[in-house]
Amino acid sequence: MRPRSIIWFEPVAVLLLVLGALQIYHKLFTSNSIANEVWLRILALTIYAAVTAVMLFLIWLISRRRSTLAKWTYIVLNLARVTESIIVPLAISQILPSFPPIAWAQLAVLAISIWLLFRSDARRWFRNEWAPVDPEIFR
Predict the structure, then answer these.
(1) How far is residue 125's CA from residue 25's CA, in Å, rounded to a whole number?
(2) What residues does each domain of the chain span?
(3) Integer angstrom CA distances of residue 91 from 96, 111, 128
(4) 77-89 pLDDT per residue, tens
(5) The pTM is what?
(6) Vertex 76 angle, CA 8 and 16, to 5°
(7) CA angle centred on 121, ends 120 and 123, rounded to 5°
(8) Side-chain half-sphere of 62: how many Cα atoms within 13 Å?
(9) Inter-CA distances, 113 with 13, 63, 109, Å
(10) Using N-to-C axis directions, what is the helix angle for 68-82 and 101-117, rounded to 10°?
């Protein structure tokens, strides 16, 4: 049996991917900057599909296989994305870039998903110290 924080991690992490897909849709199909370039849309969707497949695999490894390496890879990849979208523009232009509300929701869901990985029950589970049920109960 998995701890509660790991059980909650799965839907929260998948929600993060759904919000990312909505944000990609918003950028590709509602803005005029690359709306006329079909090949750029296809390239962006292909890259997002590949990244989503990798993230789904990491989520599976974290929540079903108890992989610490996958946990840290998930965290590093997501923090790199946050760095690229917030810190780099802030360092270049010294102003915080404007984000749609979906991006702020995505950032909040990301923080929650990472927080779930560091709760005490999740830490014990990753160290193989998780034993919520005594096996003698079922004998």
Answers:
(1) 37
(2) 4-126
(3) 9, 22, 41
(4) 999 988 877 776 6
(5) 0.84
(6) 40
(7) 65
(8) 29
(9) 6, 12, 6
(10) 150
